[in-house]
Amino acid sequence: MDARSPSSAFAGTRWSRQRLDALTDAVEPPDGDDDPIRVHAPAVGDPLGTVPRLTEPGVERAVSRCREAAADWRERTPRERAAVLDRFAALVEAHRKELIDLVQLETGKARRHAFEEVLELPLTASYYARRAPDLLARERRESAVPLVTTAAVEYDPVGVVGIISPWNYPLTLSMTDAIPALVAGNGVVLKPDEKTPFVALRLAELWLEAGLPTDVLAVVTGEGPVVGPALIDRVDYVTFTGSTETGRTVAERAGRNLIDCSLELSGKNPMLVCADADPGTAARGAVQGCFTNAGQLCLTTEQIYVEQPLFESFLDRFVSATESLALGATFDYGPDVGSLIDGEQLARVESHVADAVERGGTVEVGGRHRDDVGPYFYEPTVLTGVPEESVAVCEETFGPVVTVEPVASVEAAIERASDASHGLNASVWTGERERGERLASVLSYGTVCVNDTYAAGWAAFDAPMGGVRDSGIGRRHGPEGLRRYVEPKTVASSRIGPVDEPPFLPRTWFVRAVTALAALQRRVRQRFA
Ligand code: NAD
Fold it and tell me: Residue 360 in contact with residue 314, Cβ under 8 Å?
């Protein structure tokens, strides 16, 4: 595999250590010892800068200020708030190149994958700017007694939303949930991952420039186990994206505080290749599905089931396409696959491959740490013959590693995929798209793509995205992604005073009359449904 890496962290970017330091001016000052968190550039291992290590008092101050600022923000009309989203979208587009540089600096990902993050954000902002005013408008509902009473629903913001985001997509995953929360009239306090805090800080500056009032969006930096719980204890809703393990602790804490949450968690996403699929197209899809962002994507394909007649031709094409991928994280569009985030992630990937091989699996391509490119680069790796009990089959690897297995029938593949503990994203590959959609209907996953691994689902911003089983609860994107940030409030009124028996009517007559009216109402509604 060809390889290229930058010579030092900032060379060839629009960023410097001083510019990154200036971003932290907006963060609360830390309490106690000034022991900042050190952030590194994974592609080269060099230090990038530091951010404050906040503790509970810092989070308390940030949330209080946000709550105060949000009180005015919620009074603006949805259309006024949507206008701020539109301006934010335009600013992200205008600063596209510097944002792509910054995503690459923090994550070590290939430029093409950093580009996808920056491409997505203005589209999400403009989707919610268009749709939110209608979705948040007062709605009339069926009343208790037609003509006598009325019922309507209003959507009040929940208050302050806490967002806890991971390192793998620091731009998309810090903001894709903040956008609907803000347009719904909430304040947002965002805790980015400690490995990738600078992108969120730069985006916070762009929000201010777009006209978002000061403190309506605050960024708190610090360690997850310290800042995370302090945040959950103070907000009115929490959106968490990260591992299933941490997600459980977040849900427990939110439950104790009786606040609602959405949890976007781990995946172990299967790809089902039917015998009638085009093997070249499926192999091209597999390369994208398995190795985007070096496999560090929650939607990444980690298991491929291929119907026996197509197995050899699919595998040949997939292995040779993987072999031709170029490793690197230079600040141009040359490399195909970037770095892993750190040594811990590298160790996890290496241990999964070693375990698969020890249990009899075969490395068809890849399988090597490439420290000649950078400290945490690992080759895209295709494994076959891996037993079911191997960790690479049972657990999420979250790296550029995939197992490929022949199956006797597509039904057998569906059975295997349905048995899995995770349920985030699956894909079906077939020569007949309608058949693919029928197969998709029987798969119990949050998203199922046909003849694409994940992009068609993720980029459908009007459609919900989320997981079932161990992959989480709740949905982002679409109307569902907005409505989680509001409290639906019913406003019901009566034209005749109390909806109760009138004083002049004997109770038995009242019971008869109400019974007759209820039956009539049921029949009329059934008839005109
Ligand atoms: P993680 O759970 O370790 O960390 C995620 C975030 O939680 C970070 O900001 C971290 O600081 C914070 N955190 C850590 N401990 C905490 C605690 N006790 N309380 C509150 N917050 C805490 O996840 P990770 O390993 O950094 O991220 C990778 C995982 O995220 C993978 O499993 C991946 O599949 C998943 N992920 C899911 C989605 C999705 O949309 N479903 C998207 C991206 C990543």
Answer: no
CB atoms closer than 10 angstroms to residue 182: 29
* Cross-strand partners of 33: none
State the DSSP code for 223: -
Measured CA to CA, the distance from residue 328 to residue 3 in angstroms comes to 6
Measured in Å, residue 304 CA sits from the centre of ligand 1 at 25
Is any atom of ligand 1 closer than 6 Å to the C-beta of 173?
Answer: yes
Pick from 39, 106, 109, 168 the residue to mutate for probing ligand 1's pocket: most ligand atoms within 8 Å of its CB: 168
344 is known as an active-site residue: no
Which CATH superfamily is 269-462 part of? Aldehyde Dehydrogenase; Chain A, domain 2 (3.40.309.10)
Band (pLDDT 50/70/90 cuts) for residue 31 is confident
Is 274 tagged catalytic?
no
pTM value?
Answer: 0.97
Record: fold of 17-265+480-486: Aldehyde Dehydrogenase; Chain A, domain 1 (3.40.605)
**What is the identity of the amino acid at 455?**
A
What's the pLDDT tens digit per position in 118-133?
999 999 999 999 999 9
Q: How far, in Å, is the centroid of ligand 1 from the Cα of 345?
A: 13
The answer to whether 412 touches 273, Cβ cutoff 8 Å, is: no
- Catalytic residue of the set 66, 261, 274, 298: 298
